[in-house]
Amino acid sequence: MNAPDSQTCFSVIDGIIEAGRFAHARGWVPATSGNFSARIDANRIAITRTGRDKGNLTEADIAVVDLQSPLPPGLSAEAPLHVARYQASAHIGAIFHIHSPASAFVSRVHESQHQLLLHGWELEKAIAGVKTHEAIVLLPIFPNNQDTVTLAASIEERLQRTDNAAPGYLLAGHGLYAWGHDTREALRHIDALEHLIALQDRWNSKHQGITA
User: Fold this and answer.
1) Is the pTM of this model over 0.90?
2) How many contiguous H segments (helices) and E segments (strands) does the chain have?
3) CATH for 3-206, options being 3.20.20.370, 3.30.540.10, 3.40.225.10, 3.40.980.10
């Protein structure tokens, strides 16, 4: 790598390490769960290797992957979900995935509805493009599937025809994916969505006549 290229790569990796520590401190990535990635350039991403403690990531725990090449061994089985999102949109610069108790639980509760509607919360304005608490933000929910190549294809097909969708989605009984144009925005989105999921679930539980 030339110097500027190396500097970009190191900056991206530092962003992933920072996000891993942030998520770990909040109890969102128990054991070695979760995976984090960020775009280096049009053709490459950096992504966490499988089985790594996200609270203690180092450069050695993160692989550089070519988006147009077969995935190398040692990555999370969920790497295809990341790759599919980057291939779908050049505007995505980072994708973070957590296994928080709230996202895992709420996604199971609402799995049959295939979505969670976020509405009425001031924190919605932390999501890029949302200007008011009156907005209705749709958070899609997908059934979990160990065949992540097939899962990635089904997710992308639905996302392409979904309006007003959040920059994220839930996997039922699994957790939350969120993205942004860089690591800071992706971290803001996953933090905001995590809180909104918990708030909306408490509201729905208190007001049973309101469905999500």
Assistant:
1) yes
2) 5, 8
3) 3.40.225.10
